[in-house]
Amino acid sequence: MNRETVVREALDLLDEVGLETVSTRRLAKRLGVEQPSLYYHFRTKKDLLAAMAEAAMAPHATAPLPSPEDDWRAWFLENSRSFRRTLLQRRDGARLHAGSTPTGDLDRIRRKMAFLVASGVPEKDAQMAMLAAGRFTVGCVLEEQADAGPREDLPTDVPVIDDEAAFEAGLALILGGLVRRAAPAASGVRQER
């Protein structure tokens, strides 16, 4: 048993029982070991959850980084979509990710920020847009993963929400705001804040 095996089994357990029911006791039983053996690899459950969150983000964390010739607007949208797809791959993926610190991904985040700035997006606006898009995405996926399906107790005039369409609409609004902020900076016009 190694750290990677523990994390992989913990993620499989997450998919089976959900975040509320994941416990070191259940994980130890699944692995066929005594619970204290897990503490050799993870001192606390919080450490285990952080490692699970990092491993669950692997599909997004290994997505290609932007290249200088990429259109920053298209890249911004695809980066958020990739993040959403990755969160949706795991049961309670958004809850697992919420509050985690992407320490293993800092170099990639810096490169993404440098790309936006090199594309003419003011640095502070790029930071806030990436933060807003990330939190918006986590919130959308939290709602989507918590949705129990159609509710028959709602009035018939309450519209059914298409999660993907709602995500795309909100993402377009974030991008639209960022485009308006970036346009004056790219043209050399100073914008009042």
From TrEMBL:
Domain of life (superkingdom) = Bacteria
InterPro entries (UniProt xref): DNA-bd_HTH_TetR-type_CS (IPR023772), Homeodomain-like_sf (IPR009057), HTH-type_TetR-like_transc_reg (IPR050109), HTH_TetR (IPR001647), Repressor_TetR_C (IPR004111), Tet_transcr_reg_TetR (IPR003012), Tet_transcr_reg_TetR-rel_C_sf (IPR036271)
Question: What range(s) does the HTH tetR-type domain occupy?
Answer: 1-60
Q: Which PROSITE patterns match?
A: HTH_TETR_1 (PS01081), HTH_TETR_2 (PS50977)
**Gene3D superfamilies registered for this protein in UniProt:** Homeodomain-like, Tetracycline Repressor, domain 2
State whether keyword Transcription applies.
Answer: yes
For this protein, the DNA-binding region equals: 23-42
Question: DNA-binding: present as a keyword of the record?
Answer: yes
Q: Which UniProt keywords apply?
A: DNA-binding, Repressor, Transcription, Transcription regulation
Know the name of this protein?
TetR/AcrR family transcriptional regulator C-terminal domain-containing protein
